[in-house]
Design goal:
Blueprint (H helix, E strand, L loop, with lengths): L1 E5 H12 L13 E6 L4 E6 L4 E6 L2 E4 L1 E6 H10 L11 E8 L2 E6 L2 E6 L5
Antiparallel strand pairs: 1-5, 1-7, 2-3, 2-6, 3-4, 7-8, 8-9
Helix pairs in contact: 1-2
């Protein structure tokens, strides 16, 4: 999976859906956000088994796939990412599957490797 989003939209979309993820749960998957990239649409979704949220995210799909990432970590990272480059252009966030359980998030000069859970 590989998606590209503007940093401001990425932060907005992640923060919306993170509210539906469980803060603490006996099932670790409930503390995660599922990112699904189909042919031309990106979906962010989360649930605490009582309330669920699925939104169409702003961005471009370069490679289809599904990953599940920790909501707290992803939300905290999104808040810290720059919204503009030094030239004033919008910063781009790239999320790319690196291995079966790793996802690389890149924004400008920053690169983060996150552990993912199996989305099944």
């Amino acid at each position: 999976m590989k998606i590209v989003c503007e940093s401001a939209y990425f932060q907005q979309d992640i923060n919306k859906v993170a509210k539906a993820a469980a803060g603490t749960a006996t099932l670790p998957i409930l503390q995660n956000i599922q990112i699904e990239a189909s042919e031309d649409t990106i979906f962010f979704s989360a649930s605490d088994l009582e309330v669920g949220m699925r939104i169409v995210a702003h961005g471009k799909v370069e490679e289809a796939g599904i990953v599940t990432l920790p909501a707290k970590t992803l939300s905290a990272l999104a808040k810290e990412l720059p919204k503009e480059t030094s030239k004033g252009d919008p910063s781009k966030v790239v999320l790319e599957s690196a291995a079966s359980d790793r996802v690389v998030l890149t924004c400008d000069d920053a690169t983060f490797t996150l552990n993912s859970l199996d989305s099944d």
